[in-house]
């Protein structure tokens, strides 16, 4: 078949890892270009994502590929901006191409930390191919920087003692990955990308290793992404965030990972009180990066193509749920079927609820994070009696309190992940004897609950 170059879509890359490992800094470093003025080298800032066209990737990879031998089969790379698993857990649509590849950032001075382990678990669950950026190599004692250079050239220029320190830390990291059942190898020694995890030493400060990292991302996505995924096909779209914007009302930020969206499209998505059916009023991306960007100024689009991050303004989005799939209802579609389809994601989660009627109540910010939390609780053999999405109000507290009536103090608990807790609800919980656990990481949340449980059972 004839290949239509206009119908190519870009792979999507997520960055995740422990806090302070340099996720934001790495992305900032990639965003820096030498091109002056206007839109920096065609890099476009989108909603929740940054788009790097091939020209920019070429320029960045040049230090290790001076003869431009690297072949590019996609128009560019879309990197999801909000680093952390808030966004990653959201990119959950089944069988999807939502996150084609991930970069797990590890601080070479710290090794594997708590959120690194949590990230590994998420990546495994979703079977997402990933590489490891072993970041902050510039902190190795005596490191002499070659700004934006390839890693191996840089390493060759270091003193023997610095090279030794690198080796020691590299080996320690490899052992730590082995403890997680993963065979990690420096990417330049990796002979089997499907089996082994590649380690790419980087520095977000000096830019060293970034050419290596980008080249590896390009190579892996091209190799491991099915050829069909590189072409625009059926619509695949996920709600990342629900936001109230002055002048626009409630909007949704979505990642369009495949297909096309048009102004006026009838869309169907999952809402807290049932399915939402509405029409796209506007498709918005931020103004191009100029020296002085007017905050909150948007470019309107009649039509957008994957992969990109876009803000949708439409009536009736107040109860939209982050993590929901978004479908477009054409004249050929059965609207009722689509409604059932989007709501099934929320309904599916009911299967986690214990049939015994006993268990803790769980509340999270998004469909994806709720699912991740539920999976984690299951592994910890902690039963769940109720689930909800969004802020904690009095009704959630009352529901959890029914465990007290049943004589199960240990389950009269609300485990809250990344959600706001209403003051009145907090007060009521105190009065009723319901324990609220609220944490920004799933690990800490579950650990806190376990400690409480063990303490109570002693
Ligand atoms: P994030 O929480 O993973 O997004 O981490 P940040 O990007 O905010 O970085 C955390 C801290 O580490 C900041 O003070 C950064 O300047 C610093 N940092 C990040 N990358 C590097 C690096 O490659 N080398 C050094 N020396 N510091 C880094
Ligand atoms: Mg950050």
TrEMBL record:
Compartmental location: Cytoplasm
Domain Tr-type G intervals: 8-226
Lineage top rank: taxon: Eukaryota
Family listed: Belongs to the TRAFAC class translation factor GTPase superfamily. Classic translation factor GTPase family. IF-2 subfamily.
Protein name, entry field: Eukaryotic translation initiation factor 5B
Organism from which the protein derives: Tilletiopsis washingtonensis
Parent sequence residues shown: 544 to 1001 of 1151
